[in-house]
Specification:
By secondary structure, the chain is an all-alpha fold. Helices cover about 95% and strands about 0% of the residues. It has two helices and no strands. The longest helix has about 110 residues.
Length: about 160
């Protein structure tokens, strides 16, 4: 849009420059004619009108030129800001990829640790089951001993 606007403004500026040149030529032609006898008949009002048109055209050309320069400055600023944001995004993308790589590497490093942990959990569970069985056996043996002891004491 800015480029289209700039092209339109440039074409308007060129048209205004052409009109200014035409008015200057007319002014020069009038100046030449004024030196001759025919120039005395040239209307002073028409000369003033041409000069005011010339001044207006120059002011409009300057205004359009300032607008174009302002638009180009704004476009350059936006472009610069966009390039900065793209560079920041590229940097963040690189950091994100590094973190993903480290995360995968850490997960791979944890596989043997997790496997060993699961093995220890199974061993612990087996040990607890065995301990519970032994505890029950001890309880039975104690009960049997107490029964045997109480039978001996009853017989005595």
């Amino acid at each position: 849009e800015l480029e289209n606007g700039a092209v339109v403004l440039e074409s308007e500026r060129d048209a205004l420059k052409a009109e200014v040149l035409e008015l200057r030529r007319a002014n020069l032609l009038m100046a030449k004619e004024s030196s001759s006898a025919r120039a005395a008949a040239v209307d002073n009002e028409e000369l003033k009108s041409l000069r005011s048109r010339l001044d207006a055209a120059q002011r409009e050309t300057d205004t359009r030129l300032h607008e174009i320069v302002g638009e180009r400055d704004r476009a350059a600023s936006v472009s610069s800001e966009l390039q900065t944001k793209i560079a920041e995004l590229a940097s963040l993308t690189g950091l994100y990829q590094d973190l993903q790589f480290k995360s995968v590497a850490t997960e791979l490093d944890l596989v043997p640790v997790r496997t060993e942990l699961e093995l220890h959990k199974k061993e612990r569970q087996a040990a607890e089951t065995k301990a519970a069985g032994l505890s029950a056996e001890i309880g039975d043996l104690i009960k049997q001993r107490d029964e045997a002891f109480s039978e001996k004491t009853v017989q005595v």
